[in-house]
Specification:
heterodimer; A: about 850 residues; alpha+beta; 27 strands; B: about 120 residues; alpha/beta; about 35% helix
Chain lengths: ~850, ~120
Amino acid sequence: MRELHELFDLGVKARSLAYLFLAGAGLGVLTLVFPHSDLVRDRELVILAAVATALSVVMYVLADRLKEWQLHAFLATGTVILTLANYFVEATVLYPVMYTWTALYAFYFFRLPVALAHVALIAVGYGIVMIVIEPDSAVIRWLLAVGTPLIAGLLISRLLMRLRSEGLSAEERARAVQRSEARTRLVLDSAPDAFVAIDPDGLVNSWNAASERLFGWSAAEAIGKPLRSLIFPDHEREAYDERRRILLEAPEAVKVMRVESELQRRDGSVFPAERTISRVRIGPEIVMTAFLRDIGDRRRAEREREQLVREQAARAEAERTTAMVSGMQLLVDAALRHRTLGDILDDLVVRVRSVLDADAATIFLAEDRASLVIAASSGGPAVDERPAPIPFGEYFAGRVALSQEAQLAHNPDPADIADPSMRAMEIDSLIGVPLTAEGEIAGVLTVCATAPHHFREEDLGLLRLAADRVALAISHARVYEREHRIAETLQRSLLPDKLPKLPGLDVEARYLPAAAEAEVGGDWYDVIPLARGGVGLVMGDVAGKGLAAASMVGQLRSALRAYAFENHDPSTVVEQLNRLVWAEADDSQMATLLYAVIDPAESAVRWVNAGHPAPLLVAGEAEPLFLEGGSSVPLGVLPFPTYGEVSARMDPDSTILLYTDGLVERPGEHIDQGMARLAAGVGAAPREPGPLLDHLIGALVPAAGAPDDIALLALRNMPVSDRFSAEFPTQPESLARMRELLRRWLGHAGGSPHEIAEITTACGEAATNAIEHAGVGGPFQVSGVLVEREVEITVQDYGEWRAAREGDQGRGLALMRALMDTVEVTPTPEGTTVRIRRALTG
Amino acid sequence: MTEGLVGLEIEEREDVVVATLTGELDIAGAGATGERIGEAVPTSAQGLVVDMSRLEFIDSSGVAMLFGLARRLGSRRQELRVVAPGGEPVKRVLEIVEFNRAAPIHDDLAAALGTI
């Protein structure tokens, strides 16, 4: 508890004294203005009032710079002035009041002994005045009676105090100092912290027990050594020098410093420490002391705590992110699993609701950038009503679409909610976010919460995140739908919708799209009639799916047809195609291809295999045989690969099967198993291509559909019988094909080479006529029958037979007549029938 | 050079042009082939030999082509010779249409060239 006078600083005390002086001067002036007797002496009073006022000003101005003794001097001066005023002017009641104020001032602002001294001065002054003016006054007697013992008591007490302090002997003082030092040392030694003191030269002069424990140096070793090299590691020494310099030169204000640095033990090990350094002045000497504490444990604890906090935060963040990401991934997965936009949105709206923990969700899709329609809704009660399109700007959802900003509404008006299903709910809060795809508003996603659920501003961010995923899914689905439509159309146009009718050959194909696959595949096939009755069979598989694959198929198909029609060798054709695929900018373009040319006249098949599964040949009742030879790399893999051509016999009553890997590949199974299954399936199947393919599909393709696209193509070199019938388009190119068929049949019928040549020539004349004169009508038919070594061939067309006339036409008929035994020409309004016969003798 | 299924090689030997036909000559290739051969014979040439010894098939369109060539060369006073070995289907057709009335038919090329 501080004493009263300690509460005020000297400035306050000085200013208060200045006011007191001013008040005194004021009283003097009042006495002049209103004199109570003739005794008032103007001149002296004016001088004293002026002196008091001047002193008042001086004190006020110097208030903050005055020292305590100066203040006492001023107060004493004040007492003297008051006493002089009292002497010159006849005493009034005002003077005791002034003296009282002065005394109160002294008691209020000064220590008791000083205050008493001032009071004594007042008493002396007042007493002198009283004695001079009124020697017999009662006041004087009172003052003497009270003041004398008071002053005497004070003086005696001060004297006694002095005597007491000086009374201790030098020996006693030395013991007292030793006791004090021992006490201090004991206190310091028992202190948990190391205590070190150094003199101004930096030499240790105090080193407690804790210091010995901490640093490993005993007090005897440490004292007198420079602290610098004793406890500071090299890298801390400069900092120590700097700090010591500051402390030595520092103004008085810097007395305590707290520093964290590294210190060094005797064994050279370094540890983090906290130093509390003080500067103490003992007489003329400056001593620096420091408490030192190893804070390694504290640092470790702090680090561990920080680490723990960081780990916990990281784990919480990771868990939150994981939950969010997996939730969002569900949104994206939904887009990938379904085929149509409608399916995706139905799924998404449910997932959005569960990810956001919302009570209901609605997805609106934008139409014509002007209105919204409800595309999917989840959570609300089932409602039959299908609302009309909502123009942008109307209802909550419409405003979100118009502003393209996420919005949050609390307790929305049901009339403001566009989805009738959501309208029926008691909604606490409603969030709407725009779905933006490719920079355009694609729709709006709204979710609502019913009490006790509640959405806050923070939930907007989460919903925006969900909306991004939904918009992405919509965008993907739309692109996908568009692409899928184009690709499907393209692919349909690339697969022959009707296979050509080939005399003596039966060809059938099947195409099965993958069951679960949304995109069209790159499987394709083609059947190309070639010159001289040959036919090209193509089975290919372009890597990849969708539009890119379909357009590659388109290029390959056109190119292959072009090369094939130019009568190039199969190997040349495939090499050209390889160049085409290799030249594609897209490195990933690759295609497998099997190109086989069937030559019925030679009963042969020639093929080139660019990385494709080997075709299967089944001859008569023999075991099915894979045509393994001629296999090379797929198209587009090497710039100049060699595609070798291989051939095999393909007699009448043989069937060749081409297919894509989808038929034989099953997940988790070696392809050899699929091939074995195929061979077994073909062995058990009928030989006619149509029934053969249907049997294979039934036997090899799972009822639920195959995982990949499957294309199948079968061609049968028909067994030659006593009868044949074929149909040809009315074009010059049909003639060669007809002749090939006819030669084979005539060969089978036992004709000699001459007979075959001549009958073929005659038949050609009939067919030429059919081609030249059949109108725009359909194809012409050629049929033959062998009856007891006589062949009868009928050529039927749907045009008008020209009567024999001069020139070529006449020669045709002449040739037929010369070469055949009989020639019958039967013209009808519908067409012309030419029947020619010849007995075989060769 | 091919037109349809017929192959054609044209060779100029001194004053004579030799056109060798291979494959099958029918309506699909006859017209264009006849044009080519006709254009290949310069007015300065003495004549043309159409070698059909390796031709596998001929029909009335091919025959018409030959008659056309015969007319064209006759109007320019140039000789036409046809090579078609006896016993072959082509020779048989030429006999039936009595092509020898338009131009001589020889069994081999040397014989044909010797007559020009």
